[in-house]
Write a structure and sequence with these properties.
CATH topology of one domain: Jelly Rolls
Largest sheet: 6 strands, antiparallel
């Protein structure tokens, strides 16, 4: 924007108002109008000399691209130090913060909505006589696909017991991707719920032992996962099983 020097008062007493003489309110308003028009890119460096020039300056200011009203989806944004501001669509670079907006700043910390929580109550799987861990085949039912943060809370509950004599049972949670393993398949997937699989022993074959396997795990958004229980008995003669299994899974934002 150019610099303007307001001329001194050159009007002669009882004479008309000379052009460019800034001694009247009308003259000053014209100068201000011309300055705004120049800012908008629609004016010239010359001082307004007449009412017609003032009208032209105001018209240029009103219709200039950088000052005319923009669409409802635009804002008056900077275009750097060498160009005038213009109305344009907002971009992430115009924001004084990064996305996603953190919880500390009133946001959710995630870009997309978390996946809906799920709850499962699969049927009781077949018992196993294996002394090494095998899968219970719950993964074909207990599935989850995170959609946002990928931070998932998983809780599996149930009862475990042996069927002939009360012996030790080894039990642990597993999750993975791809085809879910069937009942009796060799142990596979990633352990969740504890650093090591649990060793449990019921007081009797009739009572069983309640168990809970839960964890918060970090998964990949958009990828489907299965969740299962791996189980083994101490002796093949005393088959082990789990029953009344329930699973609840939800994504943490």
């Amino acid at each position: 924007m150019p610099s303007y020097v307001i001329p001194g008062d050159t009007q002669v007493v009882a004479a008309g108002d000379p052009p460019g003489d800034m001694n009247k309110v009308a003259d000053m308003l014209g100068l201000v109008a011309a300055m705004f028009a120049q800012l908008a890119g629609a004016g010239t460096n010359a001082d307004p000399a007449s009412n017609a020039a003032n009208v032209t300056a105001m018209t240029g200011m009103r219709t200039a691209a950088s000052l005319a009203p923009g669409a409802s989806t635009t804002f008056l944004g900077s275009n750097g130090t060498t160009s005038r501001p213009t109305f344009r669509a907002i971009t992430t670079g115009d924001l004084p913060f990064s996305l996603p907006l953190s919880r500390a700043n009133g946001g959710t910390g995630v870009v997309t909505t978390p996946a809906a929580p799920v709850q499962y109550a699969p049927g009781d799987p077949a018992a196993t006589a294996s002394a090494t861990l095998v899968m219970m085949g719950l993964g074909s039912t207990c599935t989850f696909t995170p959609a946002s943060s990928g931070n998932v809370k998983i809780t599996v509950t149930g009862t475990t017991l042996t069927n002939t004599a009360a012996v030790q049972i080894t039990l642990g949670g597993r999750y993975g991707t791809g085809a879910a393993p069937g009942n009796g398949a060799a142990v596979t997937g990633t352990r969740f719920g504890s650093g090591a699989d649990r060793v449990i022993r019921a007081a009797s074959t009739a009572a069983g032992v309640p168990f809970t396997v839960d964890a918060v795990i970090s998964l990949t958004a958009g990828t489907a996962y299965w969740f299962d229980i791996a189980l083994a008995t101490l002796t093949a003669a005393d088959t082990a099983q789990v029953n009344t299994v329930g699973a609840a899974i939800f994504e943490i934002s």
